[in-house]
UniProtKB/TrEMBL annotation:
Location within or outside the cell: Membrane
This protein's name: Aquaporin
UniProt keyword annotation of Lipoprotein present: no
Domain of life where this protein originates: Eukaryota
Organism name: Spumella elongata
Length: 129
């Protein structure tokens, strides 16, 4: 069976800017949700310290992003996935541009997380000190 590959490029009828913005937005959503549900301390009011809903939240972001922008940009939502696919296909296509959009979305997510979860950082400083 012959291997099938595809170029990392915007879908038919979409510009690189449109595809990049889609990757930026959904990478932001995915990265923020990962930071908010998988790295934070559980509230003291919970009966258990374990929370298994984080997988559902993260998986839902991946699914929503893939369906929403899959036909526009391919829906990689992760620069590492884009690089891996490009290396596999041996075609760089629009990889540098899309990866830049994805990195930017993840960076913005980390900044917004820092601004919206200050108690997480205060707790970490207390533990270190």
């Amino acid at each position: 069976s012959a291997a099938k590959t595809f170029a990392l490029e915007p879908g038919t009828g979409y510009s690189l800017t449109q595809a990049g913005f889609c990757e930026f937005f959904f990478t932001f959503v995915l990265a923020y949700v990962i930071l908010a549900v998988a790295t934070t301390q559980a509230p003291a009011s919970l009966r258990t310290k374990q929370s298994f809903q984080f997988a559902l939240a993260i998986g839902s972001c991946v699914t929503a992003g893939g369906f929403a922008v899959g036909s526009v940009s391919g829906g990689e939502l992760n620069p590492a996935v884009g690089v891996g696919m490009a290396v596999q296909a041996m075609s760089m296509g629009s990889l540098p541009t899309l990866a830049t959009w994805e990195f930017s979305g993840a960076l913005l997510a980390s900044v917004v997380f820092r601004l919206t979860h200050p108690t997480e950082f205060a707790l970490a400083q207390k533990i270190v000190a």
